[in-house]
């Protein structure tokens, strides 16, 4: 007789107050019961939540679990009824399976290699120094999100793609709107279509007058303007928001763990490992979704064809079976394999860029402002709701001695 | 150790070049894995094993040392 499968009754909508870095306790509890739990989605559809490291990793690597947008008809917390969802627009390869996904990813891969991204380090140092200069000139206190965390990755990805400097604020605003998880569907659609229209014009401009950037390079192949627009959207949103949240939340986490911060300051050689540990500990891409294409035996249960699945990367990255003392931020931690960039064919295309940005910007911030500290009590720092695709802080008020 | 590479599965995430730079690189054109040393030893072999374990797409494998298994990837 097998044990009854654990059931998660409610998907948490927020984190425990005072614990902005930890996954919601309900999901951590679910993982303590078993690495996979039954969960009924908001529209009544039975599905699953995978919370354990090994199972999350194996689902991400298994092509029997689809990323296709048209299957994502069930939301964990919002009842959209029995809606139909159209397939992902051309080029938006995050929500596609092979072979469509590969058509878009392949031409990009060579542009985000370890070597190419390392060559960007100097440029990232310059961009970072400019932001730090601006912070210093304006003086404390400041919101680290708007002064530092957002502009650095925004400038970098815009330069890589070839988005003109003067258009960056436009992007920032709209992308904040549709990734923030806090606006009505109407506002969200407006922001999304605004970006779409802009990118359509940008692609046409690059095709007419190619410049030295990724988007112009891509106009050389067999990709249509529609496809290029979709790819640019994915790159911009991924490039803007994830690293920005890692920078802000990473700073917050280091300020809240002064012994770890002191260790990093004392030994700059720690920075590569520190960045990996912050990626694991913070898991800003907290939840991913998949749909089973066929019946699959997994972790002692049978997942039915068509079942929706929530993959909780944040609890997988805190799984004590894989990471000893998982809830401690330990910059000297050696065992790798965190899932912060996902796993399988969708593993983050821009991860080497993100690493360079984090390795450069975080130490530079603490070097420039040795007395950097929160300007408000830690429990007053507002975090995004769990409905946001990417976890982060809304703002991070900081100050320093002058 | 001997490394097995299936470039057709490679998604160019760069985990191998990051983890075991003496053993793996990425093609400057298509970004996919290049093997610099198909039979690493010592510390390089350790790093290569980690890279095999981290490979997101299953493009890398450790080939068992017997001759008849060598083509199994």
From TrEMBL, chain A:
Naturally occurring in which organism (per UniProt): Nocardiopsis aegyptia
Matching Pfam families: p450
Residue ranges of the region described as Disordered: 1-30
CDD domains linked: CYP105-like
InterPro entries membership: Cyt_P450, Cyt_P450_B, Cyt_P450_CS, Cyt_P450_sf
PANTHER family, A to Z: CYTOCHROME P450 YJIB-RELATED, P450, PUTATIVE (EUROFUNG)-RELATED
PROSITE patterns referenced in this protein's UniProt entry, alphabetically: CYTOCHROME_P450 (PS00086)
Domain of life: Bacteria
Keywords of this entry: Heme, Iron, Metal-binding, Monooxygenase, Oxidoreductase
Heme among keywords: yes
Leader sequence segment: none
Protein's name in the database: Cytochrome P450
GO molecular function, one term: monooxygenase activity
Family per similarity comment: Belongs to the cytochrome P450 family.
TrEMBL record, chain B:
Pfam families in UniProt: Fer4_19
GO MF term list: 3 iron, 4 sulfur cluster binding; electron transfer activity; iron ion binding
Cofactor: [3Fe-4S] cluster
Domain 4Fe-4S ferredoxin-type: 1-29
Protein keywords: 3Fe-4S, Electron transport, Iron, Iron-sulfur, Metal-binding, Transport
Purpose: Ferredoxins are iron-sulfur proteins that transfer electrons in a wide variety of metabolic reactions.
Alphabetized PANTHER family for the sequence: FERREDOXIN
Protein name: Ferredoxin
Source species: Nocardiopsis aegyptia
